[in-house]
Amino acid sequence: MVTCPSGYFADLIARTCVTVCPTGLFKESISRKCLSSCPTSLFADPLVMICSTSCSGLIHFADPATKACVESCSIGLFADPYTKKCSEICTGGLFANPLN
Predict the structure, then answer these.
(1) Helix, strand, or coil here: 12?
(2) pLDDT tens digits, 59-97
(3) d(CA 8, CA 58)
(4) From CA 49, how far away is CA 72, in angstroms rounded?
(5) C-alpha distances in Å from residue 27, one per residue of 2, 21, 82, 92
(6) Sheet containing 68-70: which strands, arranged edge to edge?
């Protein structure tokens, strides 16, 4: 098992510590590993290739159905611009538009 210092992530394929994970892998800061998918409590953010509790970018929302940061939420979920999450209900005086 590769254990890496702060600021580095374990590339489990090359068995080395890296500052940038290989293409297609996400940095996960708790375990300090490069992963193909993020742990249950985190979302895969493709803009910055990290596992995060929130999504970066203006048009990305954390989708619990896909465990990823997305531009369009899964069917049955609505993008909430206040929380930056996909949810079943709208908050803050917003109304659902089922056509989008």
Answers:
(1) coil
(2) 789 999 999 999 999 998 988 888 899 988 777 676 666
(3) 28
(4) 18
(5) 14, 6, 26, 33
(6) 16-18, 9-11, 33-35, 26-28, 50-52, 43-45, 68-70, 61-63, 85-87, 78-80
Residue 16 and residue 4 in contact, taking contact as beta carbons nearer than 8 Å? no
Q: What are phi and psi of 45, to 5 degrees?
A: -100, 105
Rounded Cα distance, 82 and 93, in Å: 11
- Token readout for 47 is 């803009």
Here the contacts of 18-27 (C-beta below 8 Å, separation 24 or greater) are: 21/49, 25/49, 26/50, 26/51, 27/51
Place of tokens 């929130």: 54
